[in-house]
Amino acid sequence: MTDVRLPLRALGPFATGSIGMGIWVTVPGLFLLYFLTDVLAVPPLAAGLVILVPNIIDVVLHPWVGRLSDTDLARRGHRRRLMFTGCLVVLAFVALFAVPAGLRGIPAAVWVAVVFVAGNLLYSCYQVPYLATPADLDIGYHERTRLMGYRNVVITIGVLLSGVTAPLLTGDDPGVGDYTLMALILGAAMLVAMVAGITGVTRLKQAAPGTPPEPGHRTGLLVALRDRQFRALTASYLTVAITMNLVLAGMPYFAKYELGRATLTTVLVAAFMAPAVLATPLWVLVARRIGKQRGLLAAQAGFVAGSLVLALGSAAGLPVLIGAVAVLGMAFAAMQLMPLSMVPDVIAASGPGGTARAGSYTGLWTAAEATGGALGPYAYSACLALGGFVASTADEQTTQSPGALAAVRYGFTLVPAALMTVAIMLQRRYTLDNTANTGSSGLGLRDHSMQTVLPGEPSDAT
């Protein structure tokens, strides 16, 4: 069993890399559907397909990228080559919102879809080796939670800042030019953060090098697919990813059509993300006290409760709704931290040579995340279409029917509550944490000498 403590000089840059990832996930997740329907006049179902189809393609590519990452590790001793390639996602991020003048409706949808396919592929080249890093390191059960705790705090800050900054940069009733300026500014921040993340990965590998994999390993995907614990964990996470991406896509609509002011999107994002930042260190302590699985189930139940309160709509009053969104944010922190720190546990328990399969496991995991990114906005767009929502351009004023307004509200609240209930049932099938949290020699899952250090707390390894 290992007692390695990861130094802050490595944890900081590694966590910083997730800011770039957070911008790519958050800004399109929060604004792309709205950008298509309310700026480019793309009908809701077509707009949903623009997000769905590229992400379906992405699902197929992620396991392949995972295999490439494992091959790089075996041949070169690191996964950084793909990460440098992935930094080019910044170009796709800018192009996504820099739609050529005159393109509206279906032609604009085609432009966005093509760029989104390229961007998702480049993003996976960075994301897959980045998230494989914890499994590559010679660290224990609690240190994995500590590592992902740092990462979770920083990515949540990145999501908060980008989610709040983007609406401020675009303003009220923005046009394509406003979105392009926003993409240029946030794209520059993406690039700086992602390069820092590569530095962090290098330092982590120096601090806790794992067992070098043997070249020619070819069983990672099959082992991952046959792993019952991994399947249970991934199925639940897929449902969570669908739910969270639906919520992100629905926020601008809920602010504009239910609360009456589009600018309240910034307030909702802040109310969601700020508690998530503050709650992450507490969830690290919860994981140490009662285990990751129990903490995750409690967070999922809290999310269901908060969604049901939001279903009351504007009649509940803005303070109550903001409080409910804050509950969702605190639950979101656990739903990011716990599963991502459980994946390396599963890999460690999968048998000898787990490091050589980490990219394959992570590729399948990020494929599930990409599926959630596709199905969440599409599910919300389907709700809008069923309610009779009418698309428009930025300079048009469209009055929505009562059915469309009901779809805006309940698609944002009751549908996520139902999906999260399904996620809870799937998550209960995961049982590895019972063994990991009570001690299991030979799996590298238990480390009695480890002290969990929260973000910002001094470490004797620095």
Automatic annotation (TrEMBL):
SUPFAM superfamilies the UniProt entry points to: MFS general substrate transporter
InterPro entries per UniProt: MFS_2, MFS_trans_sf
Location of region: Disordered: 437-462
Residues annotated as transmembrane: 12-35, 41-61, 82-103, 109-128, 149-169, 181-201, 235-255, 267-287, 308-335, 407-426
Pfam family, one: MFS_2
Keywords of this entry: Membrane, Sugar transport, Transmembrane, Transmembrane helix, Transport
Stated name of the protein: Sugar transporter
Taxon lineage: Bacteria, Bacillati, Actinomycetota, Actinomycetes, Micromonosporales
